[in-house]
Design a protein that fits this description.
The radius of gyration is 15 Å and the shape is globular. Strand 3 and strand 4 form a beta hairpin. Helix content is 32%, strand content 35%. A seven-stranded mixed beta sheet has the order 1-2-3-4-5-7-6, sandwiched between helices. The protein has one domain: Gcn5-related N-acetyltransferase (GNAT) (Aminopeptidase, 3-Layer(aba) Sandwich). Helix 1 packs antiparallel against helix 2.
Length: 157
């Protein structure tokens, strides 16, 4: 497994991965694809950086999207991370996070934020962020809908 910048040829595979996880609604997948299209068209000028983990055949098996938070000096957001279910549990997600943290550090970043839902299906996601050293710093009750909170995690690097 290696990590490289997202290419046009990866677009449909990433969409397939997002669908295969059974974590995201069609609307959420459409938003993820909008960010991908923006990045593929404009590169880093889009405000996003997107990297993909690839297998030995150079096929995407996961990806991560992040960017500098507007109006801040050294704060970054991780917007999306997903790993093909066939490859989950093999450290791909952690590798993508560590890679991203290093990239952000190289750019002078000091704080990384990531948001998720409190729905039961996101408990593995919450555990994943905790295992990667992220701490819950805020929770907005009923943010997405009644009983579905927004959870914000942070990590200083």
């Amino acid at each position: 497994m290696r990590i490289r910048s997202l290419l046009n040829k990866d677009r449909e595979k990433i969409k397939d991965i997002l669908s295969a996880t059974d974590m995201f609604t069609d609307e959420e997948i459409n938003v993820a694809m909008e960010l991908i299209d923006e990045f593929l068209e404009k590169g880093e000028a889009s405000g996003y950086e997107i990297y993909t983990a690839v297998n030995e055949d150079d096929e995407s098996i996961g990806y991560i999207c992040f960017g500098k938070r507007p109006l801040t000096i050294a704060t970054y957001d991780i917007y999306w991370i997903a790993v093909d279910p066939c490859y989950q549990g093999n450290g791909i997600g952690k590798s993508l996070i560590k890679f991203t943290e290093q990239k952000i550090k190289e750019k002078g970043g000091m704080l990384i934020l990531v948001e998720t839902s409190s729905q039961e299906k996101y408990q593995r996601t919450i555990s994943f962020y905790n295992a990667c050293g992220y701490t819950e710093v805020a929770r907005i009750r009923d943010f997405y809908k009644p009983t579905d909170d927004l959870i914000i995690f942070a990590k200083y690097i």
